[in-house]
């Protein structure tokens, strides 16, 4: 009886080892892609935070030049309010991207735990039945991250461009100084 039990354990161990070996290359490739995408997401999150700071400076930096305040100050005030409103619209768009990025980073961190589970299971020779599903979900997450970053980059660029152009054009017309870091 002991011999049969020992043989069964040996066969199960051999099958488990082969099962783990089957996933070694996909998990290692996934891990490499995940690390690369994580770095890109982190860089983007840092950049969007800086762009939020720049937008704050830009919207807070609309100041009338003292020598243009004349009897037409009501017109200047109206124009300044319009300028400020246009800048705030674009700042709101940048903020929306920032919120999406921050929310994504939280979800990404949770998914990183799934990858860690796969890597630990691989190292310990103990991968579960859900391994293929988890690998597929994480690969989809990597693809989604790329699509999201492309969308965020496009939206951020459009908002920055419009904000800068609005500030320059309105500032030129009004003779106001607008601070911006590009």
Q: State the end-to-end distance.
A: 77 Å
CATH class equals Mainly Alpha
The CATH architecture would be Up-down Bundle
What's the oligomerization state? single chain
Query: What class would the helix/strand composition place it in?
Result: mainly alpha
Mean pLDDT: 82
Q: Low-confidence spans: pLDDT under 50, at least 5 residues?
A: 5-17
Tell me the fraction of residues in β-strands, as a range.
under 5%
Could you estimate the helical fraction of the residues in percent?
A: over 70%
CATH topology: Four Helix Bundle (Hemerythrin (Met), subunit A)
Main β sheet profile? 2 strands, antiparallel
The number of helical runs is: 3
Strand order of the largest sheet: 1-2
Order of helices and strands: HEHHE
Q: Outline, from the CA principal axes?
A: rod-shaped
Task: Tell me the number of structural domains.
Answer: 1
Number of beta-strand segments: 2
Evaluate the radius of gyration.
27 Å
Q: Can you describe what's shown?
A:
The chain has 182 residues and is mostly helical. The protein has one domain: Four Helix Bundle (Hemerythrin (Met), subunit A) (Up-down Bundle). It is built from three helices and two strands. It starts with a helix and ends in a 5-residue tail after the last strand. The model is unreliable at 5-17 (pLDDT under 50).
